[in-house]
Membrane-associated proteins in eicosanoid and glutathione metabolism
Amino acid sequence: MPIELPEKYPLVIAAATSTVFLNVYQYLNVRNHRRASGIKYPQLYAEQAEVAKNPLALKFNCAQRAHQNTLESISYVLMMGFVTGLKYPVTSASLLTAWILGRVSYTYYYSKGDPTKRGFSLFNTALTGLMLTSVASAGQLVYELYK
């Protein structure tokens, strides 16, 4: 069964491609916090003793964690966006964009050094939407295969 890409599938590709800019933003954010805190490579996180002495070390840890959290989830977020886009390209592009904007906001607030104020609502709502629509899209594709 050949899969034809919907006419508006380039919107999905554009939204997915913009994750590169999210990654660059987060990388630069981590780099700046690393420099400010004095945490040297290859140390991944500041130790608790460093955090206790240096408030900038906590901000570095928070920035690093925000970036790593994105890297941990980006593969399945993109996969869900690509699958959703096969049936609902505008919805997929919108949800991917909301997820990206949510991650920017999450990173910004998390990097201020107070993990309780990092905020989850926008990207979690988008993530839930991608989960539901990717399952629906996959189900429709399987149904069309066997109908």
Notes: The helical segments are 9-17, 19-37, 48-53, 55-85, 89-110, 121-146. The chain has a mean pLDDT of 96. The CA atoms of residues 99 and 127 lie 7 Å apart. The longest helix spans residues 55-85.
